[in-house]
Amino acid sequence: MKIKILSPQWGHEHLDIAKFLSKIKDAGYDGIDTWIPLDAKDKRILFDYLQQHEMYIVSHQHRAEGSTFKDFKSSFIKELYECAEPGPLLINSHTGKDYFSLEQNLELVDAADEFSAKTGIAVAHETHRGRLGYSPQITNEVFKLRPDFKITADLSHWVCVTESILENFKDIVDEAIKRSIHIHARVGFEEGPQVADPAAPEWKYALDNFLAWWDSIVAVNAQSGREILPITTEFGPEPYMPKAPNSDKPLADQFAINCFMKDLLIKRYHQHR
After folding, report:
1. Among 33, 44, 199, 254, which lies 20 to 30 A Cα-Cα from 192?
2. Are the CB atoms for 156 and 184 separated by under 8 Å?
3. Residue 173, CA atoms < 13 Å, CB-side half-sphere
4. CATH of segment(s) 2-272
5. How far, CA to CA in Å, does 248 sit from each of 87, 99, 221, 242?
6. pLDDT of residue 259
C-alpha cells in the first residue's frame, strides 16, 4: 500500500489555481484535495496540471443543496458525477444534513453506492459537523445498517461535538477505523475542531491521540491490501484558525502548519512511500 499526502485548496481560493498547484508540488505534496472548479478554464487548468505532473486528486463534494430532500438528493447525485470527472482516488463527500432523518440520509448513502457501482469511484462520507456523520452515535447507526459504508475519518469533528477525546466511544472509534479509506489529518480538541498549532507542546496530548488513530487506519488499510490511502493535511483558515483579538492576524500560518503535518506523516509512514 502507498500513502499519498494531499494538500487542501481550502484557504487558498484567492490564489491562481496553476500557481497554487505549483506551490504544493514544490512543497512535496503528492496531490490535492479540492472541489471541482465552476469556471471551465480553471477546471481545465486543474485537470491538465494533475495529468502532466502525475499528481493525485481527491474530489470534494460539498455543494449539494435543495429546499426539499428530493431536490437535495438530485443535487447530491449530480455533484457526485461532477466530482468523478478527473478520475479521483475517491470522492470525499459532505453527505446529507444532521437534521435529515436517518432514513433520508441512508437514501443518500444508497445513491452514493449506486454511483460507485456505475463508475468504480469510491465515495468516502466525511465525519463532519452538520452532516450525516456529525457524531459517533449517529454514525454508528449507519454502521449497523450499511456494512459497506466507508468514511473519511475527520475525527476532529467528533472530539469537538462530544467535548472529549472519545474516551467513551472506543467501540465506535474502532469500527470507524475499519471503515476509513481517507484521512483528514487535522487535530482537534475538546472545544474545537482545530488546535492553533499541532507542533506546540500544549497540544501534544491531542496530537498523540490523533496519531494513534491514524496509525490504526494505516494498519487496517495495509492489511486489507488497499492500493492507495490518501491523507489530506486539512488544517484550515479562519474561522478554524483563531486570530489575535482586535486584528485580522492568524495565530499561525496555515500553509506552514499543513507542511509540518505533511513532513510528520511522510516520516512516520515512510515504509508506505
Report:
1. 33
2. yes
3. 21
4. 3.20.20.150
5. 38, 33, 41, 10
6. 98
Instruction: Give pLDDT tens digits for 48-69.
Output: 999 999 999 999 999 999 999 9
Q: Where are the beta strands (DSSP E) in 54-194?
A: 56-61, 91-93, 123-126, 151-153, 180-184
Determine which helix (DSSP H) or strand (DSSP E) holds 80, and give its type and residue range.
helix 69-83
Sign for the pseudo-dihedral over CA of 218, 222, 225, 226: positive
CA-to-CA separations, 266 to 82, 203, 231, 233, 262, in angstroms, rounded:
31, 20, 10, 11, 6
Instruction: Give CA–CA dist 35/62, Å, rounded.
Output: 8
101/106 Cα distance (integer angstroms): 9
At 7, is the secondary structure helix, strand, or coil? strand
**Structure pTM?**
0.97
Place of cell 472548479: 37
Q: Number of helices (H) and strands (E) in the chain: give both, helices first.
A: 9, 8
* 60 backbone dihedrals φ, ψ, rounded to 5°: -115, 115
Q: Which three cell numbers stand for residue 11?
A: 484557504
Q: In the chain, what are the domain boundaries?
A: 2-272
- In whole angstroms, give the CA distance from residue 90 to residue 257: 25
145-196 pLDDT, tens digit per residue, is 999 999 999 999 999 999 999 999 999 999 999 999 999 999 999 999 999 9
The answer for residues whose C-beta is within 8 angstroms of residue 37's C-beta and 6 or more apart is 17, 43, 46
